[in-house]
Amino acid sequence: MVLEQAKITDEGLQELRSRIGSYYKFQYGNKEVTKDSIRHFAMGMGDPNPLWLNEKYAQKTRWGGLVAPPTYLYTVIYATGMRVGGLPGVGAFHSGNYWEWYKPIRVGDLVTGTYRCSDVVEKTSKFGGRHINVYAEIKYYNQFDEPVATAVGWTIRAERGTSQKKGKYADIKLHQYNDKEIEAIYQAIENIEIRGKEPRYWEHVNVGDEIPQVVKGPFGPFEIIAWKQGWHVPLWGLGMANELRLRELSKHPAFSFRDPKTGAIQTAEAAHVDDKVAKSTAVPSGYDIGSQRNSWMAQPLTNWMGDDGFLKKMTASYRRFNLYGDTQFIKAKVTNKYVDGSEHLIDVEVWCENQRGEVTAPGNATIILPSTNGS
Amino acid sequence: MLLGTATITDKELGRLKSRIGKELRVVQHKTVASQDNITWSAYAIGDDNPLWLDPAYASNTRYGCTIAPPSFLISVLTPTGALAGGLPGIHSFLGGNEWQFFKPIRVDTQISASAKLVDVTEKVSSYAGRSVIVTSEVSYKDQHDTLLAIARGWSVRTEREAARQRGKYAEIPPPTYTPEQSQAVEEACLSAKPRGATILYWDDINEKDELPALAKGPLAREDMEAFLAATGSSFSTYFRVKHFRKHPAFFYRDPGTNNWEPVSMVNLYDYTAQAVGIPRAYDAGAQRICWLENMVTNWMGNDGFLERLCVKLTRPNLYGDTQWCKGRIARKYSQDERFLVDVDIWCENQNGEHTAAGVATVSLLSGKITPISFR
What we know:
The complex is a heterodimer of chains A (375) and B (375). Helix content of chain A is 23%, strand content 28%.
């Protein structure tokens, strides 16, 4: 046992429910959208779209300069239920997001926002027995007080002990690839199609069209480090080293654990890179971060829609862990096309499928495309 | 064999030597000292000095705004011999840095770094036999082309197989702490505080005075995660595969998944470190240079200026180890109307072994003169 294992009590749940509707203070991640912060984010999720990375290129697009990938907003305010807190010592897993974007995120923007606990719902699951979904609503504004986006993030709170007994992942083995499989994955990663400056007109899209996949894998802790160069959540010692982490964690002991031999203190988040810590929450190895998966799932959409498209809405639920050695094939297809007012819209289904053929994260999205009639 | 067994050949050495004096192609991780960039770098070394982090506090200092800690430049571009590349498959350890700082780095300063290879010297090391010391020099300039700092960084390039066979560090036992030792580390971590606004006058300094020690440890994975994310040595999916195609010698096959993983995993996994003859995962080296800077700037206060920082890394810092950063005044003198002290600085681990040593030169105010405004 590494992490503290507390029970969900009726009192704890009642106390958590009393938080519904409360606005929370939080510490911002990135306050200013800079060329560096966009690049760190794009490099950290593995997205080479020149709209985020190449200033000269971006100047010639309709946006007139660099913009950030839509889920960059995770680096400003972390869109999960985590910040709501409560139920100390009970496991917390970021498990889904709903997004609605209104404005592009441009270089030079100063993004601020609000964080509110919007709901607390009790459920039962295969994975952890009794569990609670904690919902938070995050609103993002730019320096002109224009709404940039609204996000809802939910976090499952499940008893770590119970989840251990259920062992949903007990039979999963580390996946070993042969040379051909590795090469095929690498080629799929390299040969992505980025539509770029050539508009994808709404009229030329049909229901049932498949969107070219994006491949992410095989996964390992090096992906977490890459992700963290762009993603900053100064919460409960995350991203902090040495004495700063110790000081923060001494205020949040239930989010921490100590190495039994050396006494080194770490956050519960170490489960993402440390198999021993992951195992104490019934997960067989380190695993990815929910916000990272959501960002990956947006990538085939932004690749496909081109510089003139706009990702309007997206929902993603992280149903299964992306474990050490797993590869996610992110697929999408067009499910609907329609016009709403002046907007020419496409609905898509988007999902992550791993090398075992399991759908690990279903989702859907709505994209605004340019129209041949000029609107 | 986990990592390759390349040897240092005269041909490869000749190729590397032929680049001496040439400008190196480098990619900066950070290009601006934005407040966000400063904050993430400072967090990654456990430094929360308000002179770097708190704009309201810093507006009342001689600078009138936040400045970046001197070691911020390590996260712009780390001065190492490895910048020169060459000797594929030959391991690289950072050997040390020699910094000269000319100007404070104010928030929002744009920074451009250029590097050249200055020296390639062969030597025989007790750790790995035939070795090569490769030295680069990096110049950091601001947007007005004013020189901010120059740094020399050298790397020790060693044959992995030779290091494994010699096993100089193989017998290092796992770290153990008595309760008293653990308590001392923790107390030092919790009580560390920058001197701040109270001026440290040169007149009050005596040779052999000791600086307040900083404790950094026990080293854990989250310290490495934070530091690697802040200094940007990691790539996700698309960028990782591109990097692999170009520099396959920077990767090894994970025995579990068969995936190509970056050699930088020596900073995360014990088994990768063992492949280069080190029994546990170890730090990036540059961290200790940053930590010693943290110790000196904490001591000198807001009105001191770090002019020079030389650190030679002499032993590895392994997971679970604690580094006590210490300093003692070696010399006090005045030169060109500056009031200077040379400070002997070193890192000492929990066993009392020195793992890094060097000297810092700090310019202080004298009570005999009026403080100069840096605004």
